[in-house]
Amino acid sequence: MAVTGPFVVFSGIVFVIFMLGLHNFLTNNEENGCEMTYMFEYPQFVRVSLPVDIVRRYPRYGLYAYGEGHMTERLRQMKFTGIPVLFIPGNIGSHKQVRSLASVSLRKTFSSHTPFHFDYFTVDLNEELSALFGGVLKEQRDFVHRCLHRILALYQNNENKPTSVVLIGHSMGGMVAKGLFQDPSFDKSLVRVIITLVTPHKSPVLGLDSFLAKYYDSVNAYWRDNRRAGSEGNLSHVTFASIGGGHRDILVRSGLTQMEEADVNVLSTAIPTVWHSTDHLCSVWCKELVFVIVRTLFDIVNLTTKQVSENVQERNLVFHYHMLQRTAGKRFSASFHPHTVYFDYNAVWKENIRRQFTFHEPNGIVTETHIMIRLLDDVKHEMLAVEAISVEDKDWVFACVADIVHSDVRMCQSGINLSNETKFLPSRELQRKFVYLNLAALKRRSFTHVILRVKPTKRMFQFNVDVHSSSSRHITASLPKWVSFLSNSAVLDSTVDHAVYYEVALPGFEQTWQAYLLHIQPQDCHKTSHHAVATVVVPWSREDVHVHITESIRKPLRLRLQSPKPSLYNSSDPVKVTLVLDPQCKYSVRIQSGVLDSLGQLARFYTPMVLSYVVAILLLALREQLRTLVETGQCVMFHTAVGAGAKPYYVLPAVRLGARILGWSVLLKLMHPLLPLPDLVILQEQNLDFLLLSLYLYAVAYGTVYLLGLGCWLAVIFSGHTAHKMAVRFLARSLTGTLTLSEWAMAGLSKLPAAVSAFLIALMYSTCGALSLCVGAAFFFLKLCKMYEEYLEVLFKYSLKLLASEEQQGVSEEQQSSALEGDDINEKDATTLTENDAGDDKSQDNAESETEAQHDPDTGDKADTCQTVKTTVSVANIDDSDESLSHVEVAESSDSNDYSFSELHFNFSAFLLWLSVTLINVPCVLVWARNYRYNVKLEPDPSFETSLVLSFCVAILWQGKFPKPNLKYYQWVCHSLYVLAVVTLTYAPLSLHHLGPIVATALVLIMLHQLVAPASEGNLSVGN
């Protein structure tokens, strides 16, 4: 069978494409635009004492209070008078990450002279791998629960003692905060506000163990069932905000941070005045984001009680103002815009009849000024876009009826305030506000003018006004195909003169794998300095992305989605790009396919799923090896088995069909208690599946398996001796013995696999199953190296035997020619001489066979078989005898080598499966090592059952000659491996913790078959 083929080449190409996408995903992101927060005084973390029983129960954890400067001494005395805030760190997170929030909050207290302040507490959770090992989440949740009671106990003697604690969770700390409410003993009134930063709410980033999956399922189900008002365990009193990081966060994709039950779901790129993407750690120190969070906390305080307001609607409005739709100043109180405003008759009133104009005052004004924009029954006067630069007034745009005349000037007596329609624009320098009004709708309400008001100021300000028809500024762009990625498609050749606003709709831009580049190029600028901003608006998700277009910045706007269009989304509003332009320039707009960004999106969303496809391909390769063992009596090499037995059309149609059947609602309800929801159905519900996804991931995994097998083979060939030496030295140090003793120990272990299995089981019971898997993988590798060395020895002996046979054949031919030429030798002497020579040859061959059998006990049976064959060789004719002898030896040696090499091929495939399971359970080893000083044994241990089963299996499979070619029911084993491969791709792409039991089941089936299956009729003997 050929090792390479068309699909191998195709998979290699796809693998290279995947690596390009992975590189794009990891490296091609926007620069970090966040400013660093700094402490004005040295930060101090004061440990808060806990009851003895809590300390004994949770020795790894601790509770701290944050302080700076002179406040630290008061904290050491356990004197707290503020509003408690508890920070919960996440995966490998430090309790010291609270310092940015706490320090900024402290400085705001001083600068704002507020009659209250916040006390920041933080929990030390030992920097555990809570995102990869779910066994610690329940323990962390219980510890935080007890910390809340301890924090509130510190305020018992205060006059205005708090009754609740604000929770801020970073990463997995947000899931710990959510899990508190699931505890039946938890008083839900203890928490009214939860803010989570880059927390994966929907599902784990990597579902590596069952404890993590169960925690997510139970917590999310609890919030889903109890969030609505009137439900049992009502959680409607909680204000919940979830903040994602955007494209810079390569650890937690922002789509996972969205929580349907949250009051605010937003990415940092869409938060007014932040507008920057944050990486996973930056979110706790990004100055712009920290400022917004601190302002929000200060605005939800009731000034009467000096504690967090109990009015949930008021709190939600504050969060909405600061994080979604800020219209005015930094305080929520500034968001109140009076409905009716009365104007000053003595102010300056100016009416400009042009549809596009700029009102610019470089030195400010001394008199209040009103700019009047007339409303007309004209389609060209349908919409109004106004960009206000450096206008600080919160109430600045109104609609009115100009029905009075004062000093020969037409003016309005009062107007309706439209300032609540204001949006803040991202800006490189000056503050920019924007409003977009429907003049036709205002005209139908009998208004005659829109008023732009500016109060006296010494600062420069500017209005860019653009009155236009809706159809002229709303453009629908046809998305380019992948095949046209080298060229740009024109969306707009040139904007109209003095245009301020355009809107580009992108229908069909709904999937996460789609990516485009929008090029906005300035043309014919009338001044050197200019500024424009383009914003991507996704109607079903708050994930706005911005780009500036200035004289020095000409980067394209990268169009990528963090969340696909929901399957139940009932609106026809497409993704759109809003362009707020500089009226001093014209602009061209072109769109291009972002092929590398598309590949990067595939890597962002689907890379974790590749591992399940790798395991499925390994199972199919093992199935192919067993199938060829039945047909030919030998296992083919690993790469041949992959090339011949792991074609995608063998398994992918069955996976698709099975997932569709299991996804039927009726069948799903019947089988829900028995079978979980297939991962493919989950992907379809999240609208993350597409037609070629399975083939793409299969090809990537195919290339991965091919390279992994090649790398492991090279390691066995070139590193086997080095690995053996390292193992011997490790044993010498561990057993405090000599290298010779260690060599004997290694030899004994290789001859007694049951002893190794017993050691692995003992190690698993005393420490953790994952450590047993790691040690077993190391021994498995050494065993492969030893098997390869034995094969080379057999091959070397066979080569020497061939050379000896050829030399004997040459000597016999010389003797025969001499006998024919001698006329004086009689027939009897010639016959005697020939028989003696044949007897000597036979004796010499028998001696060699006996020597080989004694030297290599594993091939002794084969040598006996060969010897029996040799005794049947006729000695009547030396030519026939030598020729037959040579053919029998070649056949015997070839069969012997094939059989020993079959064992090596089989164990190589089993080793790769073992390695895959070990990789999944590496976090368990890391957690065990980190907590070793607290507990020698890992509890709970999600790797225990899988490790136990695999350790028992190898105790059998590492002994004797496996697999045996002469057994019945191989076809049933092959069918079972095929079914397991289908199950892997159905239930494990997202739930990676299913891979361990699947691999264990496969090896158990093979072990039981090798032990109990009867011999087949017409046994395939080794020597045949």
From TrEMBL:
Q: Which SUPFAM superfamilies match?
A: alpha/beta-Hydrolases
Instruction: State the UniProt keywords alphabetically.
Output: Endoplasmic reticulum, Hydrolase, Membrane, Protein transport, Transmembrane, Transmembrane helix, Transport
Where is this protein chiefly located?
endoplasmic reticulum
Region of interest: Disordered: 832-866
Q: Which GO terms describe its molecular function?
A: phosphatidylinositol deacylase activity
Name of a matching Pfam family = PGAP1
Establish whether keyword Lipid biosynthesis is in the entry. no
Q: Which residues form the GPI inositol-deacylase PGAP1-like alpha/beta domain?
A: 80-299
The keyword Transmembrane helix appears for this protein: yes
Recorded hits in InterPro entries, A to Z, give: AB_hydrolase_fold, PGAP1-ab_dom-like, PGAP1/BST1
Top EC class for this record? hydrolase
Bias kind Basic and acidic residues: ranges = 852-864
- Provide GO CC annotations from the record: endoplasmic reticulum membrane
User: What role is this protein assigned?
Assistant: Involved in inositol deacylation of GPI-anchored proteins which plays important roles in the quality control and ER-associated degradation of GPI-anchored proteins.
Q: Please give the family membership noted in the entry.
A: Belongs to the GPI inositol-deacylase family.
Q: What is this protein called?
A: GPI inositol-deacylase
Q: Which organism is it from?
A: Coptotermes formosanus
